[in-house]
């Protein structure tokens, strides 16, 4: 999983660094002003943005694999309940929505790593405030996401063996 | 069935896995060569066209209908949807090729268990996803046993059913892919399709009264929608009036109410609708000639 995700992380990091306002506008045009959809717009899901999106720079095959890898079967809080909601994935999606629907969009920097002992994918999200203090974000929208936050870092940890 | 095959001795499984690993390489190479060999006539589809492989004009008996589709099966709690969808497509294609009804005694009933446990993913039933291409390589290379013939699962004991080729139906854009799928169903047989599965799909219960798309309203639908991962079904027809694919699922005959295990899934790319990308992720047809 990590190989394809690392390529994607590079692309995303470049977009966040050089085209943040454009990225935010594209996001709102596709997913609505709050990221939750609306007439003619679909609610944001983490793995869906790359699908048939030339900016993602992925082949059709890699696109499909990335999408399939981004569901709760890979991100389940409890691996024995692969259809249950993933609070970790929800946290990540909330942070992306907050970042790209904010009046002052927030930069996100992604890092992808493989953990040989991991059974599921997970994302550790850290907010970096304007005063340079940091705090971990674990509860998504319920975690007091506010304008004191300047940017985020997201470290995605993947289990070995899957590599789009 | 899968459950009975799962009880076979583990030592045999290990040997078969060795066999399977060897066959993957040459099988994949064969498929790569076959994947570009098909052209399509550019059929124009009239609005309202319905093609359903469960109800086709019978060329052997004019004025009557024939179903080429074999009975619905259940993958139970095992993540073996790929094996079930691939076998469903092979069985349906074979029956159409031979003009055999899917429920006739001479129609084929192939072993999902063999395909899954001999060729399938190393994590077996708890695997997160197994791509059809790998299953199809095995079907082209080793072939599948008839279910009533196999007391195990390795290589078929005699007369394995081998597909001649597997063809990737993905085209440069969604419309062309959808046309390729329709052509394949009309002329050759069912199609194998990977779809994005959401948490509401497993609970879907409206029969065929309206097509499924993620978030569709129905009784007892979950209040929140999230994405689960990949699922694989066999597409056995299409309905241009309802803009949906007619699909054979592998959740047993009690799933989806009066549809008894079948489901209509909305075409991808429709406006104002969440998409399960059934026609834009990974789509395959098989043939015997």
How does this model look, in words?
The complex is a heterodimer of chains A (164) and B (289). Chain A has 164 residues and is an alpha+beta fold. Chain A has one domain (2-158). Helix content of chain A is 35%, strand content 18%. Chain A has helices spanning 2-18, 20-31, 60-69, 72-75, 87-101, and strands at residues 107-114, 122-129, 134-137, 149-158. Chain A has a 4-stranded mixed beta sheet with strand order 1-4-2-3. In chain B, strands 1, 4, 5, 6, 7, 8 and 9 form a 7-stranded antiparallel beta sheet that branches. Chain B has a single domain, classed as Cathepsin B, Chain A (Alpha-Beta Complex). In chain B, helix 2 crosses helix 5 (132-141) and helix 3 packs across helix 4 (112-119). The relative contact order of chain B is 0.18. Chain B is built from 6 helices and 9 strands; from the N terminus they run H-H-E-E-E-H-H-H-E-H-E-E-E-E-E. With 289 residues, chain B is of the alpha+beta class. Classes of the chains: A alpha+beta (164), B alpha+beta (289). At the A-B interface, helix 3 and helix 4 of A face strand 5 and strand 6 of B.
User: What is the strand tally of chain A?
Assistant: 4
In the CATH scheme, the class of chain B would be Alpha Beta
Secondary-structure element string of chain B: HHEEEHHHEHEEEEE
Overall structural domain count of chain B = 1
Question: Helical residue percent of chain A?
Answer: 25-40%
Cα gyration radius of chain A (Å) = 15 Å
Briefly note the structural class of the backbone of chain B.
alpha+beta
Low-pLDDT segments, ≥5 res of chain B: 1-45
Supply Rg of chain B: 18 Å
Which chains share the greatest interface? A-B, 29 and 26 residues
The biggest beta sheet of chain B reads: 7 strands, antiparallel
Quickly give the CATH architecture of chain B.
Alpha-Beta Complex
Give the count of structural domains of chain A. Answer: 1
């Amino acid at each position: 999983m990590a190989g394809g995700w690392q390529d994607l992380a590079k692309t995303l990091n470049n977009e966040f660094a050089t085209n943040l306002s454009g990225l935010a506008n594209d996001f709102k045009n596709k997913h609505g002003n709050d990221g939750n959809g609306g007439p003619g717009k679909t609610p944001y899901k983490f793995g869906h943005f790359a699908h048939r999106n030339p900016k993602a720079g992925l082949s059709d095959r890699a696109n499909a694999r990335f999408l399939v890898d981004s569901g709760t079967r890979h991100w389940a809080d409890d691996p024995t309940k692969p259809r249950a909601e993933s609070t970790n994935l929800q946290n990540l999606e909330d942070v992306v929505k907050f970042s790209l629907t904010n009046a002052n969009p927030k930069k996100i920097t992604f890092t992808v790593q493989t953990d040989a002992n991991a059974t599921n994918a997970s994302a550790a999200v850290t907010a970096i405030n304007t005063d340079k203090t940091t705090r971990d974000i674990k509860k998504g929208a319920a975690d007091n996401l506010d304008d004191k936050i300047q940017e985020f870092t997201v470290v995605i940890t993947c289990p070995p063996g899957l590599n789009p | 069935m899968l459950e009975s095959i799962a009880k076979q001795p583990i030592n045999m499984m290990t040997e078969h896995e060795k066999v399977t690993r060897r066959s993957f390489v040459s099988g994949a190479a064969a498929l790569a060569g076959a994947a570009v060999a098909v052209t399509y006539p550019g059929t124009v589809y009239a609005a309202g066209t319905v093609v359903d492989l469960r109800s086709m004009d019978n060329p052997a008996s004019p004025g009557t209908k024939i179903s080429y589709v074999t009975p619905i099966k259940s993958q139970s709690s095992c993540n073996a949807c790929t094996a079930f969808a691939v076998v469903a497509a092979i069985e349906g294609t074979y029956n159409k090729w031979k003009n055999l009804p899917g429920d006739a005694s001479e129609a084929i009933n192939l072993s999902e268990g063999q395909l899954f446990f001999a060729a399938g993913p190393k994590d077996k039933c708890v695997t997160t996803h197994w791509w059809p291409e790998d299953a199809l390589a095995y079907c082209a290379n080793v072939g599948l046993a008839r279910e009533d013939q196999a007391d195990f699962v390795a290589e078929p004991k005699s007369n394995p059913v081998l597909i001649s080729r597997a063809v990737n139906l993905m085209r440069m854009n969604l419309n062309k892919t959808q046309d390729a799928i329709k052509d394949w169903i009309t002329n050759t047989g069912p199609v194998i399709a990977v779809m994005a599965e959401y948490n509401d799909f497993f609970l879907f219960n409206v029969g065929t009264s309206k097509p499924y798309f993620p978030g569709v309203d129905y009784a007892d639908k979950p209040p929140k929608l999230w994405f689960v991962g990949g699922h694989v079904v066999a597409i056995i027809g299409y309905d241009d009036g309802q803009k949906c694919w007619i699909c054979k699922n592998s959740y047993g005959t009690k799933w989806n109410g009066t549809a008894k295990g079948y489901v209509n899934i909305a075409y991808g790319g429709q406006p104002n609708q969440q998409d399960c990308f059934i026609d834009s992720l990974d789509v395959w047809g098989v043939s015997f000639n």
